[in-house]
Amino acid sequence: xxxxxxxxxxxxxxxxxxxxxxxxxATIAVSSSANQIIVGNNVTVYVTISSASxxxxxxxxxxxxxxVFKLVSSDVDLHYASYASNGNTKSVTYKYTFTALKSGQSxxxxxxxxVIGWDESYYSTSDGSKVVSAxxxxxxxxxxxxxxxxxxxxxxxxxxxxxxxxxxxxxxxAVNEDETVINVAAYAEDYRATVTGDGDIEVSAGNNIxxxxxxxxxxxxxxxxxxIEVVDKNPINVQIDGQKYTVVKIASNLTKPHSYTEKTxxxxxxxxxxxxxxxxxxxxxxxxxxxxxxxxxxxxxxxxTKYVELNFGNITIYPLEMNETLDKYTKSSLKIQNNQIExxxxxxxxxxxxxxxxxxxxxxxxxxxxxxxxxxxxxxxxENYESMNNNLKKITYVAIAFGxxxxxAIILLIKCSGKKKVKKxxxxxxxKKEVPAEKPKTKKDNKVSQTEETTDETEEIYDIFEDExxxxxxxx
Length: 476
Prior knowledge:
Elements: H1 2-9, E1 25-32, E2 36-38, E3 42-51, E4 55-63, E5 69-74, E6 79-83, E7 91-100, E8 104-117, E9 122-127, E10 129-135, H2 137-143, E11 150-155, E12 170-175, E13 181-188, E14 194-196, E15 199-202, E16 206-215, E17 221-230, E18 237-240, E19 243-247, E20 261-267, E21 270-276, E22 283-289, E23 294-300, E24 303-306, E25 310-311, E26 316-319, E27 330-336, E28 339-345, E29 352-359, E30 365-371, E31 376-379, H3 382-419, H4 443-475
Parallel strand pairs: 1-9, 2-10, 12-17
Antiparallel strand pairs: 1-3, 3-7, 4-6, 4-8, 5-7, 8-9, 8-10, 11-13, 13-15, 14-16, 16-17, 18-19, 19-22, 20-21, 21-22, 22-23, 23-24, 25-26, 26-29, 27-28, 29-30, 30-31
């Protein structure tokens, strides 16, 4: 191995003659993670040495313009020499990370290279290079395309009107009444732009409006509006609150609501897809508005009423007109699941609202508490609520009464303890008597002595009161 390193070092000295010029070849390639970056960003440059024959040792120098790029990290040095640990190495790669300092470009290239095979033969080398550009953000923005035009709109089997022009933004097409899916193909004028809104479009009787949006490379957008009219030769027209609707005749254009089953009904001597619930006893049909949107309506005796379901996972209700009133609550409305619903509230800032509705699974009607923050719903039991309020009031009254009695009792105890204090009169002088020495008292003797002292003190106080009583009699 020392011999290999020695032969590698021969390349450092230009006056030495390289032997065995007909040896195998090797390539030292240079590649990068990007061809162009914004000033301040990083680019990774890779140097890969490879050969069809096993590599023994190698040496190279990676050069670049250091006024445009700065080396921030690398696996190895810019000038690097190494050797293989076994005879199976045919390719090695090293990584360098550079930061762009200013606008410009740099050529990353290899020179002073040499490769020796595992068999100690000299390889002829092919040195590579890579040019990377750096531009400012302003230059980058200016370089992006702002072309957000469509080149054409195609619908198989149909022609749009008017004839397509990239500057005309609204188009229409009429299709047969049995069509349920229409394929719309829209093509951007600039290949770097993206198009959204085209593809397979589900349609139903009446107008179906889709928006085709073209987003240019620089992010600017343009919207083309396409109205697809599914021609209904015998439409059933309906008018509700001044708005025009048509009855939906294709079942696939409707979504079955919770706890309902599919059926058909007859309207104007035509079979119409519908849904029915044995619980609510509602029959629902689809109506399509002039804006192309489809909604479900309760159909009864030729009349149509908007049907709304509020689904909260554990419970699904059909909101009803608010006919309940409660103390301290006022009527209002709020938006739940894109529907405007009547409610009762204690104030606009209150988190909890009351809504009136029918459980579609039980047909039970009543008030429900809606949590506007968590978007949850639970049954509101007014009887339990009033009972709970009454119990709370009783508890409050009892607590107040108990507190008052306790306070008065404490005051009385303080006053009584003050009255029991008795002023002691001057002690009566007694003749000193010689008392014989006593034996040390035991605990039992001490207890007896304390009892006697207490008795004597009580008798003394009693005598004082008796004396005072006698004096008062004499005065009289």
